[in-house]
Structure formats: structure tokens, C-alpha cells
Amino acid sequence: MAAPVAWGWQHVWIRGSILKKKYQCFCNKVKFLSTVSGGAGLLSALNKRGILKDAFPDSAAQVQLPQLLQSGPQTVYCGFDPTADSLHAGNLVAIIGLLHFRSAGHNVIAVIGGATAQIGDPSGKTKEREPLSKEAVEENTRGIRESLQRIFANHELYFSSGSQKLGTVTVLNNASWYHRWNVVSFLSDVGRHFRMGTMLSRHSVQSRLRSAEGMSMTEFSYQLFQAYDFYHLNQHHDCRIQLGGTDQLGNLMSGHDYIHKVTGQEVFGLTVPLVTSTTGDKLGKTAGNAVWLNRDKTSPFELYQYFLRQPDDTVERYLKMFTFLPLEEVEKVMEQQRQDPGKRPAQKRLAAEVTKLIHGRKGLESAKRCTGALYHGSLQALETMSDEELQELFREAPFSERLLEPGVTVLEACRLANAIPEGARGYRMVTEGGVWINHSRADNPEQVLIPGQHILANGLTLLRVGKKNFYILKWLNL
């Protein structure tokens, strides 16, 4: 039996007056069928993993959408606006949702919003985005395309069995279809199908209209463009399912309404939960706590450490949501966690699985090397690290390349790295035990650097002064 439809009262501000409007909400909390066959089995599995939150229209979760998925390969899309040059952990649930659909044989489309990024989605925002130049959008689009293609490739390489028939992957830029429109034609052909009352009733619009900043016409028009994206993909790629975060629900509904009005076809929306930090803040660039998916912004080591540090009350949910481990295996990992929580097996498995998905096997190996070098004092890990890994690991540490002169002492090395002050004070810092070289205390200022001890096989000398001040010397003429 279909779940009941939610009814409510919405106050809509129109031309300075309050219009009280009773409206029907198309979304219902997802109550997926428990059968393990066909489309309902996929939706049920995603629901159990915490990846799906809501579905619309009302009958979607119960009857129509499972039947559609069971009838043959479908096309599912999700959009990503290039407002930065990398995606972040907040985008990861939607990407993983697409990957699950692909694993089930459905075709997926990732749309990069090269056009819509210049408008700015007001959903979840308290003020309007800063305008982006065309050049910035193009640069950001390249970074996000690289993110998506790398993650899809890693999933196919490391998380798919040879027996699986994966669906296709397509990455599109919506600027490719908007350049054919002019504003008069777009408003005449597309805008006439939207009603102001419905548009004003959207939560993202209402919250902004009540704010001191208000909402610009540019932002208000965003839902038209996202709706048209869905329509374009429906017409050109037979796409009938859109995936988005819960903050996108109003935009998804606009797309559903527009397609239904113009074509009479039934399409579907699915939302994924927003990922929040331990303090409840949404993970993303606006909140200032983004964990990026491109290496030049968040290294494999930093990504690995982020998931390794998740608290015990979060890790099971994240194992289900962010990894492709069967749920039975998740339960086994959590049982190990309960038996020996000090070893943190659940956090280690979570960090490894996510890092391999984002950065591949080499990225995971890099993260483990960096972890060993920094937290376990492993000289072997230090010796095998590349210059890129060194600079990622010690991102704030000064990096110097020097010629190695015969007889260079500990004191001279510290001064070459500008790690200690000149004169007697710097000398005392060494003699008093405040300097470490390659994880070993170096308290003799006159000690000549010894290859294999102070200078590793890769030409590295890692200096630490005090508890947290690192300096890297790279000797060039070994």
C-alpha cells in the first residue's frame, strides 16, 4: 500500500501580501519494498545503507519506480555545479548513489553545471554566491570533471567484479545546451510552464525571502534551469530519474512538474542525505570545513586521516554509506570494533575503502606511508616517500633543497633550514634536546650528518624543532 501523502499549509509572499495556500507535497519518506528482486531490491538496499532519504512522486517508492528499474536499464543523473575546482566529501554520497545504480546495470550521467554555476543555487545558502567569471567556471569545470572521471574509473577497477555488467557513464556540461538559448526565447518557451505561487512556496525561496539579504531574481530563476536540465536529459538521453541532496528537493520537484506538463511522462526524484560534521554542520565549502576530493586540495593522507578519526557512533553509518562492503561484512567489522575498540578496525577499514575509491590503490599506499612516517616514526616510510608526498604530509613545513658540503653538522643543517635562530640561543636549542632529525633526538650540535641516519636514501633530512615545527631538507648532490 502506498504511503500517505503529507499535507500542509504554506504561507507565500506575493506583491507584499500573504497568500495562504494549501498544497500537496509530492515527497514521502522512503518506504521501500523488502523484496530482493529487481528495482525494489536495489532501492531497498540503498535505503538500508542510508544512501536514499526521500522519493517522489507519492507512488514512486512503492510501485512505479521499482517497476521501471526492473523493466531494463534506466538513466539516472545528478548535477554538480563547478563553484570550486574540486568536489568535496559532501558530494560523495550522491556520487556513490550513482555508482550503485551503475553497478546494477543502469546508465548514469553526471552533469557539471557550467551554466548554472554562474547563476548560483540558493538551496541551503543564507546569502547569494559571489559571481564567477567565465574563466573561473571553465577552470573549475576541468577540476570537477577530473574528479568524477577518476572516481568512476577507480570504482570500476577496484570495486566491481568481472561478472558485473556495468551501466555506461557520461559526464556532460550543461553550458553545451544553454549556449543555444537567448533570454527571451528561454522565458517564452520554458518560463511559461512555471507558476509563481509554486516557485515561491519552495523552502529554499521562503527561507531567503524571510532573511535580511533577500533573494535576487537571478537566484530565483535557478529552479527553472535545473528543471530544464532534467527535461533536456529526458529528451536526449531518455533520463527519467534525478538524484540530489535533500536540499535539492524543491528543484527536483520543479523538474518533475515541468516534464510532466510538457510531455505527460512520469519521472522520478530521489534524494540523498546531507553529510554533516560531528558538530552538525553541513560538510562543504560554504561552511569552511570541506574535505576535498582532488589531491592538490586535500592529500590522500589528509583524506585517510579524516575518515580514520571518525567517532565510534558515526563509523558504522559511514561504512554503510561511503563503502561498497556488503552489509554482512560491515557487521563483522563492527563486531571486531566492539571486541577491541582500541585498535579501531572499523575506522581503518572505512579510511582505506574511501581513500582507494577517491585516489586509487597508489593513493591509499601513499596515505599509509605518510601515516607511518608521521605517527609511527617509520624511517622506511620516510625513505620511500616522494617529494610530492613529503610536501603533502608536511604541507606547512618549509621545504629547502641544498647542496651537501663535506662535514655538515647538525647545527649547520638546522641553520640551513632556518629552523633555529643564529647565535647561542640556537645552539642551546640543540643541546637541550629540542631538535629531532628523522624521528631521533639530535642533541650534539657538532655531530656530522651521517648518511643512513641523518640523511636517508632518498636524500631527505626531516627536522623537527619542538613538538610541531617541521622542516624538510632535500640534499641534491648525493
UniProtKB/TrEMBL annotation:
Family according to the record: Belongs to the class-I aminoacyl-tRNA synthetase family.
Protein name per UniProt: Tyrosine--tRNA ligase
GO molecular function: ATP binding; RNA binding; tyrosine-tRNA ligase activity
Keyword terms: Aminoacyl-tRNA synthetase, ATP-binding, Ligase, Mitochondrion, Nucleotide-binding, Protein biosynthesis, RNA-binding, Transit peptide
Annotated organism of origin: Megalops atlanticus (Tarpon)
EC numbers on record: 6.1.1.1
InterPro entries named in the record: aa-tRNA-synth_I_CS, aa-tRNA-synth_Ic, Rossmann-like_a/b/a_fold, S4_RNA-bd_sf, Tyr-tRNA-ligase, Tyr-tRNA-ligase_bac-type, Tyr-tRNA-ligase_bac_1
Main location per the UniProt record: mitochondrion
PANTHER family with a match to the protein in the record: TYROSINE--TRNA LIGASE, MITOCHONDRIAL (PTHR11766:SF0), TYROSYL-TRNA SYNTHETASE (PTHR11766)
Listed Gene3D superfamilies: HUPs, RNA-binding S4 domain, Tyrosyl-Transfer RNA Synthetase
Complexes and interactors: Homodimer.
SUPFAM superfamilies named in the record: Alpha-L RNA-binding motif (SSF55174), Nucleotidylyl transferase (SSF52374)
